[in-house]
């Protein structure tokens, strides 16, 4: 289940990055690069911080194949996907939930405190999108009012709370993923946001 979620998240983030780049009218090479960094940017930063090198995608070519696959899907079906207002948000949301779980799991493997594991999960999920938005000259979603990183933090808390009742691991992943996806989609649907800080 863990490996499956990892592959789904990689493909989803690659599609999200590719669609963002297509909307910015980049050439095919630019679209592929944005898809690539969106898919592996957060995980690369996480692995470097915990001293796990070479980083994940360099040791397993399946990640590269999945990114190419996600890129191809986004390019081939870009017109159909562009008509779906929620397509970008949906792919982002799936990737967000899955990559949060991956970051949490990596932190636990290294025996880190739950708070640090949640930070790693948030970093894994969000920083590929941060790199994507910066390269596409956008203010990163994580720094705007929109509920984004908060979903990862809440998902991490839910994960560790449920872990205390000894749920089967696959069920734990599914429940936590479902919670984060539902939270994020509801936040987008009802435009929940954090207050901005303004000078008086």
Global Rg: 16 Å
- In terms of DSSP E residues, the strand content is under 5%
Q: What is the molecular shape?
A: globular
Terminal CA distance: 50 Å
Percentage of residues assigned to helices? over 70%
Please count the helical segments: 9
Profile the largest sheet.
none
Q: Find the count of extended strands (DSSP E, 2+ residues).
A: 0
Question: What's the mean pLDDT score?
Answer: 87
- Protein structure class: mainly alpha
Give your account of this protein's structure:
There is one protein chain. The protein is mainly alpha-helical and 200 residues long. The protein is built from nine helices and no strands. The protein is globular and about 50 Å long. The termini are far apart. The mean pLDDT is 87.
Break the fold down into its secondary structure elements and pairings.
Blueprint lengths: L1 H22 L4 H22 L6 H4 L2 H15 L1 H6 L3 H23 L4 H22 L13 H15 L5 H21 L11
From the structure above, extract its key features.
200 residues, 75% helix, globular
What's a concise summary of this model?
The protein is 75% helix and 0% strand. It has helices at 2-23, 28-49, 56-59, 62-76, 78-83, 87-109, 114-135, 149-163, 169-189.
